[in-house]
Amino acid sequence: MKRDEIQKSSEFWDTHIRIHGEKNKDYIHWMVSPLVQEFCLKKLPSYDKKIPATQWIAWIKEKYAQTPFNMGLSLGCGDGSLERHAIQYKICQQIDAFDNSKNSIEVAEQFCKNNNLESFIHYHHKDINEIILEKNKYDIVFIGSALHHFEKLEYIFNEIKKGLKSDGLLIINEFIGPTQFQWNEKQLKIINDLLNLLPTDLKIDRISKEIKTKVDKPSIESMNNLDPSEAIRSSEIVSVLSQNFEIIERIDYGGTILHLLLYGIVDNFDGSNEKDICILKMLGYIEDLLISENVLSSDFTIIVAKNIEKL
């Protein structure tokens, strides 16, 4: 991205900070809905209970961090929710966190102060695409739904590789779908065919208050005008990561249909209505089936990786 695009992206997130746990009147995003979490999201393999993909930090604690790591790193930290959980769950004892949005860092620092975590979490306002990490400093690195905003993937992964200790872990939870949301025609056709089959009462868009009639891909121009960093190289994330790290666990959890189909309308599904639950379950089943049969690929994944070879 050019310097003016980097600035535009930073300004976008300065004014559109996502506050995790914030109580909104309506659920807009598919993964925020408790019904989607219960019926549609793939459950993470767990020792004694089923954990939905939205609770991946708890799963990391259970499977990979029963003994706390010493030093952690979070890139693209936003409001700081991930770091707070990492400390409160005792995944690591200390954690550095970086974000390109100055306002996000300020919000994160205030949350940190409110929770008396200032001595455990250290925030920094940095452009992740230009970040320089100290060699062999970190035991674990997290990137939660931010990596698809990073353009210089090769450089960033090399820095993470340098910053991780030889036995360190890189853990991402990411959108890995089409770059700049250029959805393919097969995906769009399936989504729109399913949308047309939904009852009208389930298609009321909670944002526009109008009936949702079509899902389409945005123009590159509109993507660049809004946030040039959005999904800037999302489709390349796994391949570039694999050049520097060994993937030891990968859990794809879909979203190829549900992400777009349910956006803005997911809150219409009533948990006390058997018909709504049945329809939602069927939509989740259709997505799972199409992905398992390789008709579509998963747009969201959780990956646990380690260094292939230490510098």
Task: Please specify the SSE layout and strand pairing.
Elements: H1 3-15, H2 34-39, E1 43-44, E2 51-52, H3 56-64, E3 69-75, H4 81-88, E4 92-99, H5 102-114, E5 121-125, E6 138-144, H6 153-163, E7 164-175, H7 185-197, H8 220-226, H9 237-244, E8 245-254, H10 258-261, H11 274-292, E9 300-307
Parallel strand pairs: 3-4, 3-6, 4-5, 6-7
Antiparallel strand pairs: 1-2, 7-9, 8-9
Helix pairs in contact: 6-9
Task: Explain the overall architecture.
With 311 residues, this protein is an alpha/beta fold. The chain has a single domain, classed as 3-Layer(aba) Sandwich (Rossmann fold). The strands form 2 sheets. It has a 7-stranded mixed β-sheet. A two-stranded antiparallel ribbon has the order 1-2. Strand 4, helix 5 and strand 5 form a beta-alpha-beta unit. The radius of gyration is 19 Å and the shape is globular. The mean pLDDT is 92.
Number of H/I helices:
11
* CATH H-tier superfamily: Vaccinia Virus protein VP39
Give me the CATH fold name. Answer: Rossmann fold
Q: Could you list the spans in which at least 5 consecutive residues all have pLDDT below 50?
A: none
| Count of individual domains | 1
Shape: globular
Largest sheet properties: 7 strands, mixed
Strand content: 15-25%
